[in-house]
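Render this sequence as a predicted structure.
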Amino acid sequence: MTTVKLENIDACVFDAYGTLFDVNAAAREEQAALGSQWEEIANNWRTKQLQYTWLRSLQKKHADFWQVTGDALDFALSTSGIEDAELRDRLMNLYLKLSSYPEVKSMLESLKAAGKKTAILSNGTPKMLDAAVENAGIGHLLDGCYSIEDVGIYKPDPSVYQMAVDELGVAPSAISFQSSNAWDAYAAKAFGFNVVWCNRFGQAAERLPGTPDAEITNLSQLLPIVGAD
């Protein structure tokens, strides 16, 4: 964890998947059906999901995150030699109900108590994000929930980060952006945000433009950095 204090932060904007919501939760719920391969399937699902967003953006062949998530799951199951339509449907439905990380709700409560605006900025479709927010019971703690579907291209395109500026009416210099996805954190910093990388998984630093301002291991550590402790 890096000890930094960011000054004059008016809004905290969060990535959704892997940052607020546990992307492995769906596969974990189906451990009995997936067996010892469940973690490998979860990892392949997530990796391919992200790859497809980048590749579709580069190819200018957009499909929404629900389709991309399903395509990635099909790849992951096929890689592990699993063909089970009912299991696939259960996993996709579970993705709408991913559990939030334990500290998320109390962290958002503290930010709101400190007078900070809060929002989600995500690749997810509005339907997916609404379901995850409702399941976590955090809707009342958010000032906005923004989907890339409004610009039709995935992160890390700068137009995605601009959405938060436009929707919240807050300058990039007064926004702290949080993501557990290092590539997202670095891209948001290159865009002009203050950035706190929530490095939940102990990943090495990226070799990309835009080094984050601070690094934490869970979101409860964000509060003193943005002046909400």
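Summary. DSSP finds ten helices and six strands in the chain. Strands lie at 11-14, 117-122, 144-147, 175-179, 194-198, 214-216.
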